[in-house]
């Protein structure tokens, strides 16, 4: 399951713990023993720095720790020769010049840390990069014009221009990050075995029919929607294991959800919810302990599966 668990790092003890615990690099964490330097053909230090920061901004955010060496993709020790020496201001200037939109540079938090390690003073520069919600971040590149990097596990990959245009859907990106934020705040429900979600839009109801046709409502519509557990989150959708329906003020028990006398729906069936059908998402009241999602589509059961129906389909 993809989730956004990014949080900024500003505590020296956390950095010390990376080395002591040989913490592995991830989609949200990278170690760099040396500050960026010129020397690679066709690439400048400022462009390399822009590429590394943009990759986090185009993904789920993350932290790059400069001054911590890595071996086999794990923190392996401190660079005892690393000095701060104006690096923060230098990096700020680079990002302002190399990133587009330039406003991304102001969202990046650069933290200077200095602490004792075995009787000596150790310096570390932590670059905290939040996910950028307003489209794709580009980096000025000498030969290619612009590149669009992103993180895939521990690696940096690059979007084609066509892929960048697809990802440039601001509303979809914002909803993806919002769902990741809400999921990071939530704990799995012991009964549902996942993060509970409630579809509470007034247009949600159970209908019988084929997508693209005029569905026929069942005898009694779902007054308060339906609910389940989020079991997967991707950049364009999320996956819900349906656990029950709310009918009037009575909840039909999990296991078998009976909508009419001759129609029973087994619990545990899954529904893919594209972000294009999500109007809003918010944390519900503590009594419900769930993420609420408002849809512009109807949830219905057809051919032994859950599906969505909308005029937007």
Give keywords.
four-stranded mixed β-sheet; alpha+beta; 2 domains; 39% strand; 23 strands; Methyltransferase, Cobalt-precorrin-4 Transmethylase, Domain 2; seven-stranded mixed β-sheet; globular; 20% helix; 313 residues; 6 helices
What features would you describe in this structure?
Helices cover 20% and strands 39% of the residues. By secondary structure, the protein is an alpha+beta fold. The chain folds into 2 domains: 12-168, Methyltransferase, Cobalt-precorrin-4 Transmethylase, Domain 2 (2-Layer Sandwich); 176-309, no CATH class. The longest helix has 16 residues, at 170-185. It is globular, with a radius of gyration of 24 Å. Residues 202-209, 217-223 and 246-263 have low confidence and may be disordered.
What is the CATH topology classification name of the largest domain?
Methyltransferase, Cobalt-precorrin-4 Transmethylase, Domain 2
Please estimate the helix content.
10-25%
Q: What top-tier CATH class of the largest domain fits best?
A: Alpha Beta
Query: What's the N-to-C terminus distance?
Result: 26 Å
Mean pLDDT: 81
Give the domain tally.
2
- Beta content comes to 35-45%
User: pLDDT under 50 segments (min length 5)?
Assistant: 202-209, 217-223, 246-263
Number of DSSP-assigned strands: 23
Overall shape: it is globular
Q: Report the C-alpha radius of gyration, rounded.
A: 24 Å
Write the layout of secondary structure elements.
Layout: H1 12-20, E1 29-32, H2 45-57, E2 62-66, E3 68-71, E4 74-78, H3 87-98, E5 99-100, H4 103-107, E6 109-117, E7 120-129, E8 138-141, E9 145-152, E10 155-159, H5 161-167, H6 170-185, E11 195-199, E12 207-208, E13 216-217, E14 226-233, E15 237-247, E16 250-252, E17 256-260, E18 263-266, E19 270-274, E20 278-283, E21 291-295, E22 298-302, E23 305-309
Parallel strand pairs: 1-2, 11-21
Antiparallel strand pairs: 2-7, 3-4, 5-8, 6-7, 8-9, 9-10, 11-14, 12-13, 14-15, 15-16, 15-19, 17-18, 20-21, 22-23
Helix pairs in contact: 2-3
């Amino acid at each position: 399951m993809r989730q956004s668990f990014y949080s900024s790092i500003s505590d020296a003890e956390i950095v010390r713990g990376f080395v002591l615990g040989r913490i592995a690099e991830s989609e949200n964490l990278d170690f760099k023993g040396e500050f960026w330097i010129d020397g690679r053909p066709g690439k400048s230090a400022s462009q390399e720095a822009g590429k590394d920061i943009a990759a986090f901004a185009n993904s789920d955010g993350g932290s790059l720790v400069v001054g911590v060496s890595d071996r086999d993709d794990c923190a392996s020790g401190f660079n005892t020769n690393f000095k701060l020496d104006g690096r923060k201001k230098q990096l700020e200037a680079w990002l302002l010049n190399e990133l587009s939109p330039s406003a991304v540079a102001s969202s990046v938090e650069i933290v200077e840390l200095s602490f004792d390690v075995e009787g000596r003073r150790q310096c570390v520069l932590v670059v905290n990069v939040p996910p950028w919600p307003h489209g794709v971040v580009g980096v000025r590149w000498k030969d290619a014009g612009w590149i669009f990097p992103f993180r895939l596990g521990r690696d940096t990959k690059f979007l084609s221009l066509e892929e960048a245009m697809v990802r440039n859907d601001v509303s979809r990106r914002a909803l993806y990050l919002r769902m990741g934020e809400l999921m990071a705040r939530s704990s799995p429900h012991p009964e549902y075995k996942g993060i509970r979600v409630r579809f509470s839009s007034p247009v949600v109801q159970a209908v019988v029919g084929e997508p693209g046709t005029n569905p026929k409502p069942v005898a009694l519509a779902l007054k308060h929607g339906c609910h389940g557990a989020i079991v997967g989150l991707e950049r364009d959708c999320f996956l819900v294991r349906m656990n029950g329906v709310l009918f009037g003020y009575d909840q039909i028990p999990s296991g078998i959800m009976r909508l009419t006398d001759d129609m029973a729906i087994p619990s545990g069936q899954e529904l893919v919810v594209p972000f294009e059908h999500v109007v809003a998402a918010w944390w519900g009241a503590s009594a419900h302990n769930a993420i609420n999602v408002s849809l512009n589509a109807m949830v219905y059961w057809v051919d032994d599966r859950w599906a969505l129906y909308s005029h937007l389909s």
